[in-house]
Amino acid sequence: MQQSDIDTLAQSIKITHQAFINDEYVDAVSQRTFSVFNPATGDHLAEVARCDQQDINRAVGAARAAFNRGSWSRADPEFRKSVLLKLADLVRQHADELAVLECLNTGKTISDCMQEIGTDVPAFLQWYAELADKYFGKVPQTGRSSIALITREPVGVAGLVVPWNFPLLMATWKVAPALAVGCSVVVKPAEETPLTALKFAELAMQAGVPAGVLNVVPGYGHEAGEALGRHPDVDVISFTGPTEVGRLFMKYSGESNLKGVGLEMGGKSPFIVLDDACINDDLIEHAATAAFWNAGQNCSANMRQIIAKPLVEAFSHVILERVAKYTVGDPLSLETDLDQ
């Protein structure tokens, strides 16, 4: 995209604000909404459906019914593969719109959004699409009088809780493998950044994902998130976010149906430079990127940089020079390296 294309899209983009349940965009049962803003400017973007227990019940019910029908869960792997490949192509076709929407909703730079949504998201969809017909069971060794088979089957309904720092990319990390193996999913995007996940659901429908297989339910963690974590008909939860909330999902599982829980939680690993390191352009670029990529808003950001004492002065001088070259400004500008 050229800058003029970005600016035009930002002014004209259509925002989807309803939940997506059973192949339909619907209001929350309660009719409540919550406000979504552009964090870079404070501009109001949309009033989005504020889903709660009632809406989670609807979404999980649709996901379970779809799973039981077998139109996806028992479909030929080649069919699931073809649909996911088509979805990857649709994301590529709509990458400009999705990237601008992500930029507006998150304050991430448009350059990062274009890379993630134009390249990374469809690549993940394509990779897992190709996996759909390439994962295998096992035939253990037995005596001549018997045979044993180990087969891999979809677990059922997966609840997928996504953070705000990589909204569509991390939704794809969770959705793509779950769909590839035949699960039905209920996605709960972060309340700050639900917009691209809601648009993605429309593309999934166009690609041929059957009704009820993919549902997107926006809302707050203590309402929609907890309801999903406690729901007795959800078989597994995948959560990315704060450690304290991850503990809650373990609690929700223990107090409901002991559903499987996969957690990716916060952390800040250090960037360590030992005394035999060479302070060259490559090391400095890695150090700067490790700390400032995505404005440092990721759980693997190396904000702490531990430098061997003999190298502190040389490292500090060069890293400060590199950081000073970052352009801070409007996230929608192609010239911006860090959002304001």
Annotation, overall tally of beta strands? 13
Structural class: alpha/beta
How far apart are the first and last residues' alpha carbons, in Å? 21 Å
Mean pLDDT: 96
* CATH homologous superfamily grouping of the largest domain: Aldehyde Dehydrogenase, Chain A, domain 1
The ordered H/E elements are HEEEEHHHHEHEHEHEHEEHEHEE
Give the helix tally: 11
CATH architecture classification name of the largest domain: 3-Layer(aba) Sandwich
Share in β-strands: 15-25%
Main sheet specs: 5 strands, parallel
* Proportion of helical residues: 40-55%
CATH topology description of the largest domain: Aldehyde Dehydrogenase, Chain A, domain 1
CATH class category name of the largest domain:
Alpha Beta
Detail the poorly predicted runs.
none
How many domains, as an integer? 2
- Please tell me how large the radius of gyration is: 22 Å
Sheet with most strands: strand arrangement: 7-6-5-8-9
